[in-house]
Amino acid sequence: MRIATLMWNRDVMAYITRALAAQGIEVAPFDDAAAFIEAHATQAFAAILVEDSEPRTAGCIADLRPHLTAQTAIIVVGAGGAANISRALLLGADDYAISCEPLSHHLVQRAIARISVKLRASQLPALKIGAYTLDLANGVLRSHRRHERLTSRELTLTRVLFEQCNQLVATEELCQALCGRIDGAAERAVKQHAYELRRKLQRVVPSEGESLRIETVYGKGYRLSW
Q: What is the dihedral of CA 97, 98, 99, 100, to 10 degrees?
């Protein structure tokens, strides 16, 4: 397994690298997003660990996301805290891990778990509802000749809603699916990604037939209606 790192604090990078190497994981450090994108064109990476450092984190994730496959996880690494974790998830990160040397083993296990989840999701068959196809392997929503690429969290949200089409899906279930926990930050992440998914659904509406729409059932959850 090969994991890339994009970090500016050399001490943090050093102990994370040691922790990953101790588990037999190859680490490839990069100084900026452009260098990683160039390497990623010819090499496969299971994940990239991005240091949580304002304002650089937002720009890095924005630069990285269009070039990543559905199988590559973006994990932000930082000091933690509800505000930082929420911000990273809303920016499109797949997960957040605390950068503390005593917790480096926990960080490694969290990264491995997140990678395993993404790999399992990528091996699932495509899901279809009417003219819509959700390509799980490539993270793409299609309808006839139109298509929209989904971020990792949008893909997770869409998969859960596709699997339970026309059923109410509780906010708590979506929080667990997207963030692995139930709290205010996770609820805000669900709300933000539902908003973005609505926009993408509108852009792939088929020329004929019914369109998919996400309904918000306030205080309870969301429903994908067709």
A: -140
